[in-house]
Amino acid sequence: IIKEAYKAADELAEEGISCEIIDLRTVRPMDRKAILESVKKTNRLVVLEEAWPFGNVATEITYLVQSEAFDYLDAPIVKINTADTPAPYSPVLLEEWLPNSNDVVKAIKKVMYK
Which tens digit of pLDDT belongs to each residue from 67-106? Predict the structure, then answer.
């Protein structure tokens, strides 16, 4: 999924939008400092995770930022997750189920008000 984030960042760079990507290697311990410093620098947050939308790491990240860096946000936080459906087995359906670079581009443009 990180490849999709970099693909979206490259596409957005062509439009003059710079993205900062944090690839969390572990969730425990979570690199809280990197997340908070990025939000303080960019004033925005888009969280991309290959998981269902409910009860996931993305929710924990949004909670962290809302509770410790809310005043730095210039736009609502956007989460990008898989569809809220059972995981498909078919490769064609799986491709549609997973978040992709187009989803990331749309989310970033949303928080940039573009």
Answer: 999 999 999 999 999 999 999 999 999 999 999 999 999 9
| Distance, C-alpha 73 to centroid of its chain | 15
Q: Quick one: tokens of 1?
A: 């999924």
The residue segments making up the domain with residue 61 are 2-111
Taking the C-alpha atoms of residue 109 and residue 101, their distance in angstroms, rounded to an integer, is 12
Burial of 83 (0-12, 13-18, 19+ CB in 10 A): middle
CATH number at residue 78: 3.40.50.920
Q: Which element (helix H / strand E) includes 47?
A: strand 46-48
Is 66 in contact with 77 (CB distance < 8 Å)? yes
H or E stretch covering 64:
helix 57-68
How many CB atoms lie under 10 A from the CB of residue 36? Answer: 16
